[in-house]
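Escalated from tier 1: flavin-adenine dinucleotide holo job.
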Amino acid sequence: MDFDLSEEQRMFQRAIGDFAEKEVAPLVEQAEEEERFPVELFPKMGKLGYLGVRYPEVYGGAGADKISECIWAEELFRICRGIGTSLFAHSHLGTFPIFAFGTEEQKGRFLLPAIKGEKIAAFALTEPSAGSDVQAIESRAYKEGNRYLLRGSKMFVTNGTLADFVLVAAYTDRSRRFEGISLFIVEKGTEGFRISRKLRKEGSRSSETAELNFADCSIPEDNLVGGREGVFRDILKTLVEGRVTIAAGATGVARAAFEVARQYAKERVAFGRPIGQFQAIGFKLADMATLIEVARTMIYKVAWMIDEGRTCIAEASMAKLFATEMAERVTNEAMQVFGGYSQMREFPVGRYWRDARQLKIGEGTSEIQRRIICHQMGLKTD
Ligand SMILES: Cc1cc2nc3c(=O)[nH]c(=O)nc-3n(C[C@H](O)[C@H](O)[C@H](O)COP(=O)(O)OP(=O)(O)OC[C@H]3O[C@@H](n4cnc5c(N)ncnc54)[C@H](O)[C@@H]3O)c2cc1C
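Tier 2 regenerated the structure:
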């Protein structure tokens, strides 16, 4: 067993860490304030191969492994969870299905320009009345000749306001339940495709989230992902692997909160000494550092399983569950270390805390992760 990152992974960690510090950090304040994603990052990151870390070089990706993608998420989310979320929705949710089971023609038309940062991607599964209960989605697509008519609404779509194309999940055969769900590439400008509204959020404000509507959109059959109906099992692979990346992002948010709290504990003086010298505060920081370390170790293990081609449905859920709940706890403790200053917007700790809260909800809530783990243990919980 070898717990060291390889030389290549370490170099990548330094490079993406530097990029995040130098190119992303200066954009954060304005992006959060204006609730606007800084779109100039797409071409900039595309040129450096940072939008397709795991995709093979033939598609313009960096051809790196899942562990590197986790490093990518931790470094970016450490600087800004909102910006990291939009980049994740683009680089994973909105493109991985095309990479994993799209046709070569779809890869050429959508994956390549997305990896270059020339086209922005989004993924739309959730609906106003169906989130955790995926089977309850109401969107439908009806075949008419060599086209499909798509009808439905989608909720909480990250990059929904910006996307050049959206992967939309809809039933093509309701009678087959999960098995009847298909995925369509809906391009910006398609007649009937409308951004109903941009959503205002508590956390991840620099990530743009929208509700979308599809009113009898006519979609060419060439835009049916993989050229076949009933791909829910393939979509699940995207979701399982995405959970591990989000877990790594959660570790980044927790690390950011820990780092500012540790520094503050060294500088803030009360009763004549730095507050970090009070056991109550020092122990908090020790617990925070321990939790982050445990989460990262677990995430790397699950990422390694993915790189080895092993099944890791339960483990991916465990990593997502642990790391996101850990991030909530760590950011909460960081707020306590900052005392009254935690409430002041001049310090970033409040942002980390707000941003951590949603991590337990997106990509499957904590309850749903526990449910998956139970199912994988052979326990039918409901
Ligand atoms: C900022 C943000 C960005 C997002 N981006 C995207 C995106 O890009 N694309 C996309 O498709 N979706 C996206 N989502 C949607 C996200 O995946 C869903 O919010 C999430 O899956 C939960 O669904 P829901 O909000 O409908 O909650 P619900 O499913 O209504 O759940 C409400 C509560 O009930 C609990 N619950 C539900 N069922 C069970 C059960 N069987 N057992 C126990 N408890 C249960 C849940 O855990 C939760 O606590 C995003 C959400 C947010 C907030």
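The longest strand covers residues 147-158.
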